[in-house]
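On clarity, I found the account of how folds are encoded harder to follow than it need be. An entry of this sort, consisting of the sequence and the corresponding backbone structure tokens, reads as follows:
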Amino acid sequence: MGGKDSNYQVVYRGEVLEHFKPGGWVFFQRPVECGGGYWLGRTYDDVFMIEYERPVSLNEGMIYLIRLTEVEAKSNDFDPNYSLF
């Protein structure tokens, strides 16, 4: 599973996600027979919501999470010179 400082968990084939944080990111490893890779999504009470529309590699998924964090950090920035025209 993910390290203590990471904002995600990894569940490998044959394992179970025993503890989750609501809204936390989780990679679920897919069977090799189904093409491998991981489903990336968020866990909530009673549901796992797939965030990425297709299976990803761990590397691709982590890059997605890093970029998402960067965008979220800038989401409250205000540009007074922004023009709609």
